[in-house]
Amino acid sequence: MNARLLWLGTALLSNALLMSCIKRTQDTAPPAAAAAHVQQPVKAGGVSTAPPATLPEGVTIKDKYRDFFPVGVAVGQKHLDDASVREIITTHFNRLTAENAMKFGELAPREGGYNWKEADAIAQFARDHQMAMTGHTLVWHRQAPGWLFTGLEPKNPQSIETLKTRLKAHIDTIIPRYADVVDNWDVVNVAISDDSRQAYRDESEGSRFFGIFGNEEYVYWASKFAPDAYEKHAPGSAAGKLYYNDYNVNLKLDRILPLLDAVKKRGAPVDGIGMQMHIRLDWPSIEELDRTMQGIIDAGYKIKVSELDVSLYNDYPGGKFKAAPAVDFTPELAEAQAKRYADLFALFRKHAEHVTSVTLWGVSDESTWLDNEPVPGRNNHPLLFDDQHRPKAAARAILEL
Ligand code: GLA
Question: Which residue, 138, 283, 304, 372, is the most exposed by fewest CB within 10 angstroms?
Answer without folding.
Answer: 283
